Amino acid sequence: MESDSINLDSYLTFLELDEFKVNRPEPSLDTLSKIVEKHATKIHYQNVALQLKYISGEPIVKEDLLISTIQNKLIDKKEGGMCYDINLLMEAALAALGFNVQLVSAFPMVLIPGKLPDHLALVVQIESSYYIVDPGFGINKLRAPLKFDFETTQETVVFGYEKYQVVVEPTCYHVDLITDGKVLKMFYFLREGSAPIFSKKEKIISEYVAFMNSEEESVVRDLALFMGGATPDGRLALWYDKKENSGWTFKLENYLPTLRKIYFKDFEEFQKAAKEALNVDVPSELQKVSKRPKA
Question: What pLDDT sits at residue 115?
Answer without folding.
Answer: 79
